[in-house]
Specification:
4 copies of one chain form a homotetramer. By secondary structure, the first copy, chain A, is of the alpha+beta class. Chain A contains 8 helices and 13 strands. In chain A, helix 4 (about 120-130) runs parallel beside helix 5 and helix 5 crosses helix 6 (about 160-175).
């Protein structure tokens, strides 16, 4: 469906994250290795926390592989928190308002996966969104509506609980509509400081998700790797698929897990939906 | 806000309608004379009934004045029913799913005007849409939601009553949210056979609307006018503003009126919202 | 690089050619089977001869697989001559003026392949273009410049000779710049009546090219195939790769060959570059 | 035709330059006051020198007034040298490669005006471009070709002389083709340090051009003006038209003049074309 990347650490030029790795996200836009689709050419988005209090967003409907503005921005902008997402539409229109990451205040959100049989559940889920938030929904994707449900359930206060409640509702509504496996997801969200990433699916066979291992250790192992020298010791990546073939650089995130990345370290917590 | 044109009559090349007149719709995209904005450069759309049972749609986010594909299509396609619309966004995103005309089955719909303070009323109105229609809403405009309300109230069976009921609901919901003048509209809708056009606003000062007078009479008056020779006797236009300065060619549609164009003639009926 | 399709025959809806076949051109935009690239997502173009004397052109920078306007146009437009092309850029910008087919008067031209080391030869070739044609070059591709060279050498009078002269010049200029194999090409051109398609490369290993066999024979063989019933007896296709797996439906065009399609039949002529 | 802005000074957020002023460049994209056209909606571009050695470029074919990515970038990026340009096409295609500013190495270039009867002179001028530079021309505008002529004549070494030589050639070629007034121009170019701006036309009635006066003096005059507080003492602007109505803030650049902005000060030099 899609592929994404979440970076936390010392400020780094976007180019180092999006273009330089052997299996970079831009490369994955044409030749993803582990995705349901090899082509993720239905637009993309980047959210980055630079020197301003609010993150910037760049959304484009072009395939990432040939977008010149993405290349320019990536060569100029540095940031300590970066979310990037390439899209393979599951049916909704290719338009900027359907591009991830989505933003609300200081928060970003991006999703790989889908809400199964979305047309059947869309209205029930939309009605569950906090009324004051409802008119802020700009696009037509399941992913954005999922974000607004998480916001409704308190994402800005307690992300794991809010996501658990949103997933619980989605599964409940889905099953009431006869959908066996209502949700498939890897999700990342951040307030620009901590990042939370989730891997879960109703059927227990979720889309792939990996987190990077300690950069300083890797640098000792691979003293000649230029990519590792561009990254600081506190650099942490959570990605849909590894950005390269370096043995030991990536660990798969287990099923039904929430990865919390904060201050150069990460914790893995069990994740399960909350009863609606 | 926007400008539109609805043509009924014998098949004519789109070019004759969209480019050839002195104050053509494409010309109005840059220099509208009677609009709230002189520039209507936030995308456009054309719907046409050619030889197929369903109308075709061409939606673009580019300004009409420089869109080469519109010029090409207009030179090639002929149709007996044509809806065309140029957009000046009142805030929602410039994307194809926000371009008019909107389509449902054989029906087209386009709107100039706005639902006042749309974010305040959007949720209440969205919930009023027939649940089976709700997931078919693709964009984020007030105009498309208005279309789905009209469909909910039976547009396909009795357009004037359905529009009256939709407007009644919009005014009722608006007033409950403290909005003095909830709606401003000129609207056109068609099933590919009959066309209904409405001019109405809560405040009684509606956007401009005109309908063409009899072509054969005009042709006698202006034997040298090439535009009139490209049009058949049964040609009827309803437009946001006259396409030229020909004296006698255009009549203003009165406030609170529904124009019904059918079989080369038109009827003007009084229009008022129905109580919700 | 790219994939293309050239249709000649009784008028057919574009949809039958572009969407319906199992391995349709739109399908090939994401999953080409025989191309150098599996993804041909850097824009596309369609040229069609409808009821007007000049062909229409629809050029888009979006991937064909998600372009809604292409789907709409294809459902509405019928034509007896159709050129369609999906692009995988070899470096030049993704913009409408770089989309094939290119047009000059009644003529269309499209190309799969490349002029090797184009920057090295571009200026010499540009200077060779007839001065009155030079300012009509709108884009930046090798393919469009190749078209203008063919026009310079008399394409409108004798297409095989003009293409042979253009290729001869390209090889001559290329070799003077030390390029071993200056050209790789399958090309199609038409005046809206006859179609000429060429398969050639300096190295003698050209991109794939196929032409369809007789539809009436196929229809006897496959009485249940719906695709064959949508096509008339005079339907002829020349394509970069077969549109389906029907045994006997496609024949490979040999190396160094020009296929001339006219009046429901085709001739295969040997093709070789002319000395510059 | 177009409108542009060149900023030199301490780093400032792009937003302060492009959105905040009363008659900002983004405002001028819809409602220019002094341009030949009030609408400059045929794309735009921004070049900025941030913390990297080479300038970044953002080119878009959308009207500046509704481009969300421009707003995002402007809120995030700060730079000490900024070139911004909004386009009103005089005929060439609306595509990113036709958007100003154009870039070569560290150099940027932008132009308002036109080369009269460009198709007539294009080939002669293109052949005059240094052969090694020729294949780097990406678009189809007179403005980009003018840039490449200036580069050919030594822009990187002595900008006023190079521009004088390029204009001399353009006038010479134009007059040989019977064009009375071959060029109309305001041009700005920079190496990221010094900025050179030119106002000239063959007919002696050039497009408008203004430069800002000393900010510290203005700040004393207008202690309550927030715009002036966002700008440092060394801020210098050269613009197609004043960004506001502050009396004393803007001085018209005289006809046939080159403004050199360097180190917080500017010099005005007479400019005249060099004999070809």
């Amino acid at each position: 469906m899609c592929r994404w990347l979440a970076y936390s650490g010392s400020p780094v030029r976007l180019e180092e994250l999006l273009y330089k790795p052997a299996n970079s996200l831009v490369m994955q836009s044409k030749h993803a290795r582990m995705g349901v689709e090899t082509t993720n050419g239905d637009g993309f988005g980047v959210g980055w926390y630079g020197s301003e209090p609010y993150p910037g967003l760049f959304h484009s409907t072009e395939p990432a592989w040939h977008d010149r503005n993405l290349r320019e921005l990536s060569a100029q902008a540095s940031a300590g928190r970066v979310f990037a997402h390439i899209r393979a539409s599951t049916g909704s229109a290719v338009q900027q308002t359907n591009c991830h990451p989505f933003r609300h205040g200081r928060w970003l959100w991006m999703h790989n996966g889908l809400l199964k049989d979305f047309p059947a559940v869309k209205r029930d889920l939309a009605i569950a969104v906090e009324p004051s938030l409802f008119p802020q929904i700009e696009g037509a994707t399941d992913s954005e509506l999922f974000f607004f449900l998480a916001l409704t359930f308190g994402l800005e206060k307690d992300p794991p609980s809010a996501v658990a409640a949103a997933v619980g509702l989605i599964e409940d509504v889905g099953r009431r509509h006869g959908i066996e496996h209502p949700i498939q997801m890897t999700v990342a969200t951040t307030d620009g400081d901590t990042t939370w990433a989730f891997r879960y699916s109703s059927e227990g066979r979720s889309r792939s998700l990996f987190h990077s291992t300690d950069v300083s250790t890797l640098r000792t192992q691979y003293p000649d790797n230029p990519m590792l020298h561009a990254l600081a010791d506190d650099a942490r990546l959570v990605v849909s698929e590894p950005l390269g073939d370096l043995v030991g650089a990536w660990r798969e995130v287990p099923e039904s897990t929430c990865v919390v990345v904060h201050g150069g370290g990460e914790d893995l917590l069990p994740f399960s939906p909350a009863a609606a």
